[in-house]
Amino acid sequence: MSPEMRSAPARLQGAEPTIFEKSRPGRVGLTLPPLDVDRRPLEDLLPRDMLREEPPGLPEVNQLEAVRHFVRLSHRNHGVDLGFYPLGSCTMKYNPKINEDVARLPGFAGLHPYVPDDLAQGALQLLYEMEQYLCEIGGMDRVSFQPAAGAHGELLGLMLIRAYHESQGRPRKKVIVPDSAHGTNPATAAMCGYAVVEVPSDDRGGIDLEALKRVVDEDVAGLMLTNPNTLGLFDENIAEVARIIHDAGGLLYYDGANANAILGISRPGDMGFDVVHFNLHKTFSTPHGGGGPGSGPVGVKKKLEPFLPVPLVAFDGQRYYWDYDRPQAVGRIRSFYGNFGIVVRAYAYIRALGPEGLRRISEDAVLNANYLMTRLAEIFDVPYKRRCLHEFVVSGTTLKKETGVRVLDVAKRLLDYGVHPPTVYFPLIVEEAMMIEPTESESKETLDFFADALAEIVREAQEDPERVKGAPYTTPVSRLDEALAARKPDVRWRGPAAG
Q1: What is the CATH number of the domain that holds 478?
Q2: How is residue 98 annotated by DSSP?
Q3: pLDDT tens digits in sequence order for the chain, 499 residues long
């Protein structure tokens, strides 16, 4: 940068001033009408020691500057409405806007969660019908909507498994988790007081049956499994896995994070699973990210139904009502009845598509993933040479060995192409892993653009590796110190007075 540019205002250097730097004394963004009621002094309303001695340090800007500031900030967040978001294992699909309109209907959005049953018949009917849909999709008998997310659903699922074994007079100590599992699986099992037993994958990417047989005994409470797993592979031996666990008296828990691959094609209940959670904010198109909102309904087979948390929706042929008469229930795991607005969105999605549409979703998701995997096999290593389902994993081991460029560098460089990077370094069993899920929402043109971008980045890595290692270049914030950003994040602006 030239000396002239170094001394130029920040705006001329490409750095946008903060809203505080745009502040000018006396500027306002709105005009309020005169107060037409008597206003009591603040001292009469609040304790004196809670009153400010000086006005808060808020920026003084006009409405146009305020609007531009917040709109500009919103554009710095990447989302599926702005560009491709191939985040493996998260199913970042398009969220149909009609779902948002339905969720905002006054009868849903304005309904108090503790309104009497007779004044909430429409909402209760929706929950009742949604339960039937999820039971049919998952091959289950009853569903609770209380869990607020997938991991919360896992917690409830293992609580149900524990309650079942205790009711049989034989509490157990261990939960089996494959080495390809989502990290929440072993964390949830440990949180529920179980010892976690890991089993390795075989050379086809499924559970190693011989290793499984060696760890199964009368202390095993259950197995937690995602199918297809985080490698994007369907376990070809799932029926035998279920038989081994059930013969030992254990139960099977289905992590539904990857259910986008199986809608209308296969059902966890038919595979032998006893408990399943669905991520409505993944599989059924409701928005997620940034901490919420989520929804992780849990479905169970008949023998686990008595332990579901209170209340459940019931129907007596004439009216819908909350059923609290559940003496064996594990209790309540969330306030109210779950994230109702998310359930409404997912309900609209299912009703709009119907059975044939749901199956088409999975067929297109699998097609997109296999097409993209075939294209990327030309430039990356593919650890498992078999057809994938909704997602797949490639490895940058050869690229790193030949150029020194890691998949983290590739992910950072993708930002310069306007693409959100895929999941990297997971699952842990694949070195230099990139986990990619294109979903059914994306067109062939988008997939080709993504594949071409990765091919260009690999070419850059071979010709000028330092350029890839220094990426990104076009984002508001350039390459960060990963460790420092994680351990000492600085997300607060401090003006001159604050130092």
Answers
A1: 3.90.1150.10
A2: H
A3: 333 333 344 444 456 788 988 999 999 888 888 878 777 777 777 888 888 888 888 899 999 999 999 998 888 888 888 899 999 988 999 999 999 999 999 999 999 989 999 999 999 999 999 999 999 999 999 999 999 999 999 999 999 999 999 999 999 999 999 999 999 999 999 999 999 999 999 999 999 999 999 999 999 999 999 999 999 999 999 999 999 999 999 999 999 999 999 999 999 999 999 999 999 989 999 887 665 688 999 999 999 999 999 999 999 999 999 999 999 999 999 988 999 999 999 999 999 999 999 999 999 999 999 999 999 999 999 999 999 999 999 999 999 999 999 999 999 999 999 999 999 999 999 999 999 999 999 999 999 999 999 999 999 999 999 999 999 999 888 888 888 988 998 877 776 544 3
Q: What is the DSSP string of 409-465?
A: HHHHHHGGGT-PPPEES-STTSTTEEEE--TTT--HHHHHHHHHHHHHHHHHHHH-H
Orientation angle between helical segments 150-167 and 184-191, nearest 10 degrees = 40
- pTM (predicted TM-score): 0.89
3 state DSSP class of 164: helix
| Residue 185 domain boundaries | 97-352
10 Å CB burial of residue 466 (0-12, 13-18, 19+) is exposed
Q: What distance in Å separates the CA atoms of residue 189 and residue 196, rounded to the nearest whole number?
A: 7
d(CA 61, CA 45): 29
Q: Which helix (H) or strand (E) holds 275?
A: strand 275-278
Residue 299 near residue 278, CB atoms below 8 Å: yes
150 and 25 assigned to the same domain: no
Burial class (CB in 10 A: 0-12, 13-18, 19+), 185: buried
Residues 347 and 129: beta-carbon distance below 8 Å: yes
Identify whether residues 264 and 173 lie together within a single domain.
Answer: yes
Residue 182 shares a structural domain with residue 201: yes
Paired strand residues for 300: 142, 275
User: What letter would DSSP give residue 317?
Assistant: S
Q: How many independent structural domains does the chain possess?
A: 3
* 182 lies in the same domain as 118: yes
Position 84 in a domain: no
Q: Residue 89 falls within a domain, yes or no?
A: no
Task: Tell me the backbone φ, ψ of residue 43, rounded to 5 degrees.
Answer: -60, -25
- Of 352, 376, 393, the position where a domain reaches its end is 352
In a domain? residue 498: no
Task: Cite the DSSP H helix spans in 305-339.
Answer: none
* Residues 142 and 290 occupy one common structural domain: yes
